[in-house]
């Protein structure tokens, strides 16, 4: 029986691929013990127990960004955190540590190395974070979601996807999808989403351009986010949702998507052969722009800067695309050519390689 510790959390970008791998490990071997290392503040605190996994929580300790008093205390606190995780590895008799980035991954990698345990690293973004750059120095088993990610020893494995996305048969599910959302079966659907919290620029521009899109013969499924403060009109063919807990059906309905370029979003859209318009958010390390790079290069998507995504851009660039069925079909074919559906299996294979000969 193998005992796995999956480390990561904070955001959906770390938690979702972690849970996809956890599910695949448990599905393959119901006797396997899968535990998750995270913090009490991150998204994992809610999602991991809800999925049936034990969450081991440790201190949230961000890397210091400036030379202040907290930075001076950081080395001692970090050593204590590594020692705490080492104790957890021994207490739970862990066989392998698999990290997905985030605050807890860096100390988990060092704790595993100190205990002589194999380490596996998965990097979801095209531009690696600090934790996984550290992890790549202590492991030979490093998987990345995007080709060209600059990480030592990286192998392209794609993104582990949620089972309901990985196994989605879009044509077969489309009828259920349009009924679920109250859409018309005979119209093409533009899916618009800025993530669970929404994206004000995307929301405002689509709100202002809805009549143009509807006039082009399309319908809109607009997931505005739970924090959207805008008022949306009640127009035929314009379906507005604050949140969507059936993204599999939303993706089954979509003929084109307008979205941010988060790693999971890009990976899901390409895996499902959905052409896209990406509006990257210029935050963090600028990883969203890099996440979309492969899709743009393949012709599976187009991109527009956040500040340039305006009703004028919709009229000049999006409307001609909506009216060009041949171009949309070509974009979908290119997405299918670069998309990866079996990322979870590929990461599990990497874990098996790392643990070969160590566990019975």
Account of the protein in words:
- With 360 residues, this protein is α/β, with parallel strands linked by helices.
- The chain folds into 2 domains: 173 residues, Glycogen Phosphorylase B (Rossmann fold); 175 residues, Rossmann fold (3-Layer(aba) Sandwich), CATH 3.40.50.
- It has 15 helices and 13 strands.
- The strands form 2 sheets. Strands 3-2-1-4-5-6-7 form a 7-stranded parallel sheet, sandwiched between helices. Strands 10-9-8-11-12-13 form a 6-stranded parallel sheet, sandwiched between helices.
- Helix 4 links the parallel strand 4 and strand 5.
Attribute tags:
360 residues; alpha/beta; Rossmann fold; seven-stranded parallel sheet; 13 strands; elongated
Topology:
Blueprint: E1 3-7, H1 12-28, E2 33-38, H2 44-50, E3 54-57, H3 69-91, E4 96-99, H4 105-114, E5 119-123, H5 130-135, E6 141-144, E7 154-156, H6 163-166, H7 170-181, E8 189-193, H8 200-215, E9 219-223, E10 238-241, H9 247-253, E11 256-259, H10 263-271, E12 276-278, H11 287-291, H12 293-298, E13 301-303, H13 311-322, H14 325-338, H15 343-355
Parallel strand pairs: 1-2, 1-4, 2-3, 4-5, 5-6, 6-7, 8-9, 8-11, 9-10, 11-12, 12-13
């Amino acid at each position: 029986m193998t005992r796995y510790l999956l480390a990561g959390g904070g955001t959906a970008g770390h938690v979702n691929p972690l849970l996809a791998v956890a599910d695949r490990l448990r599905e393959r071997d119901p006797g396997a013990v899968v535990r998750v290392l995270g913090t009490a503040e991150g998204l994992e605190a809610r999602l991991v127990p809800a999925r049936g996994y034990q969450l081991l929580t440790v201190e949230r300790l961000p890397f210091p960004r400036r030379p202040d008093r907290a930075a001076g205390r950081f080395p001692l606190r970090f050593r204590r955190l590594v020692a705490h995780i080492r104790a957890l590895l021994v207490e739970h008799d862990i066989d392998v540590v698999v990290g997905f980035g985030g605050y807890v991954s860096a100390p988990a990698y060092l704790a595993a190395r100190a205990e002589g345990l194999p380490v596996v690293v998965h990097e979801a973004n095209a531009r690696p974070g600090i934790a996984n750059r550290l992890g790549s120095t202590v492991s030979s088993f490093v998987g990345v979601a995007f080709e060209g990610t600059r990480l030592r020893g990286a192998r392209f494995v794609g993104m582990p996807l949620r089972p309901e996305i990985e196994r989605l048969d879009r044509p077969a599910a489309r009828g259920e999808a349009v009924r679920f959302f109250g859409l018309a079966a005979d119209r093409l659907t533009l899916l618009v989403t800025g993530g669970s919290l929404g994206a004000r620029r995307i929301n405002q521009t689509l709100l202002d351009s809805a009549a143009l899109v509807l006039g082009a013969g399309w319908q809109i499924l607009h997931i505005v986010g739970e924090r959207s403060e805008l008022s949306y009109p009640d127009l035929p063919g314009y379906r507005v949702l604050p949140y969507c807990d059936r993204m599999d059906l939303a993706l089954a309905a979509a003929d084109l998507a307008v979205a941010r370029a988060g790693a999971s979003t890009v990976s899901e859209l390409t895996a499902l052969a959905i052409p896209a318009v990406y509006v990257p958010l210029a935050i963090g390390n600028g990883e969203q722009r890099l996440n979309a790079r492969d899709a743009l290069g393949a012709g599976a998507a187009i991109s527009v800067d956040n500040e340039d995504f305006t009703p004028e851009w919709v009229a000049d660039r999006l409307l001609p695309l909506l009216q060009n069925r041949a171009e949309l079909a070509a974009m979908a074919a290119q997405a299918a050519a670069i998309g990866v559906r079996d990322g979870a299996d590929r990461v599990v294979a990497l874990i098996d390689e790392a643990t070969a000969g160590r566990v019975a």
